[in-house]
């Protein structure tokens, strides 16, 4: 009988998770060829309405673009309005920003705002209204519910839940962030060290998310996206090194690497939040809610991965070399993203 200690349940499940991570990585790879169109769809539209004088409103409407094409969306109000200025449009990278001024002939509160065409897309629209009396209203419109009734005011809870949902949706479709977390699970085979690493990643990206969103520290978004892809490749390489019996800082102290790369990923989260827009009267609340939503989504992903690993382990044996194969699959997907994002910068 061998004297070698039996691996803990967590270790065995983490190893089984390798097989699942491999499948996740391959699934993401299969989606890469349609990634541009898909990303175009899931980026939210943003409608800002600000009352600058009694019954006079400044409207800003941001819609996702791909190349020279934008989503065919239009903001409509149920009440009678007059156009005070023509619509001025200008592209900003991957979005089209339109601004104009209107005069309402009926009170805005009680009217219905509709994002016409939203029902034909896979994206959402965030609507933010600021009235002259200081009251604000934020709503999330979806393809299934493309319109909403404008109330006289909105509760703090309404703002909080809206941005929590935005945070959850961002991490759910943030395949690069999820792939980094999956790679982190593969490199950390002890639950205490995993908790420490995930906590470090959370603290780090919360710091840069806040600083970047408030404008204290800014980095250009496209180079940040390239570096995020590179961070995934580097962690995938560390998994292979670990399986070969080698050691490094990422293997011995994964929380330090998770913290360093978490700072980088925070800029990526901030870019999405800036693109969505923040309610000027509730910026701290929206920041906390969005970050909370991101963490909920991240924890749900980790829990689902380990739970599925436990289920799979009961019905199938993990093939030899699954961890290495998973690392190569993750690295290949991340390398593809890196090339694709570099291409977007230089071409």
TrEMBL record:
Membrane-spanning segments: 170-188, 200-218, 224-242, 254-274, 286-309, 321-342
Top-level taxon of the source organism: Bacteria
Keyword annotations of the record: Membrane, Transmembrane, Transmembrane helix
Identification of the protein by name: HupE/UreJ family protein
Lineage: Bacteria, Pseudomonadati, Pseudomonadota, Alphaproteobacteria, Hyphomicrobiales
């Amino acid at each position: 009988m061998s004297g070698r200690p039996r691996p803990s349940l967590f270790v065995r499940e983490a190893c089984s998770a390798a097989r699942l991570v491999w499948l996740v990585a391959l699934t993401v790879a299969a989606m890469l060829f349609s990634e541009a169109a898909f990303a175009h769809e899931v980026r939210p539209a943003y409608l800002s309405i600000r009352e600058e004088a009694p019954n006079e409103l400044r409207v800003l409407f941001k819609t996702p673009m791909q190349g020279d094409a934008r989503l065919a969306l239009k903001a409509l109000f149920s009440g009678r309005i007059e156009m005070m200025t023509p619509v001025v449009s200008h592209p900003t990278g991957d979005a089209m920003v339109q601004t104009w001024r209107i005069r309402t002939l009926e009170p805005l509160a009680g009217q219905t705002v509709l994002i016409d065409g939203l029902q034909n897309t896979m994206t959402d629209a965030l609507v933010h209204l600021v009235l002259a009396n200081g009251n604000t209203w934020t709503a999330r419109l979806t393809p299934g519910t493309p319109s909403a009734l404008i109330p006289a005011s909105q509760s703090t809870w309404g703002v909080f839940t809206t941005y929590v949902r935005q945070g959850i949706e961002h991490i759910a479709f943030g395949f690069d962030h999820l792939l980094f977390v999956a790679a982190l699970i593969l490199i950390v085979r002890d639950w205490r060290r995993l908790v420490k690493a995930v906590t470090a990643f959370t603290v780090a990206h919360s710091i840069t998310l806040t600083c970047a969103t408030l404008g204290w520290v800014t980095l250009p978004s496209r180079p940040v996206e390239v570096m995020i892809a590179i961070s995934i490749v580097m962690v995938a390489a560390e998994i292979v090194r670990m399986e070969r019996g080698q050691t490094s800082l990422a293997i011995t102290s994964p929380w330090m690497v998770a913290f360093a790369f978490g700072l980088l990923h925070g800029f990526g989260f901030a870019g999405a939040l800036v693109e969505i827009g923040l309610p000027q009267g509730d910026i701290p609340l929206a920041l906390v809610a969005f970050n909370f939503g991101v963490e909920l989504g991240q924890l749900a992903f980790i829990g689902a991965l380990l739970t599925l690993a436990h289920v799979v382990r009961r019905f199938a044996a993990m093939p030899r070399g699954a961890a290495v194969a998973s690392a190569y699959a993750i690295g290949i997907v991340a390398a593809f993203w890196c090339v694709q994002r570099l291409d977007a910068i230089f071409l």
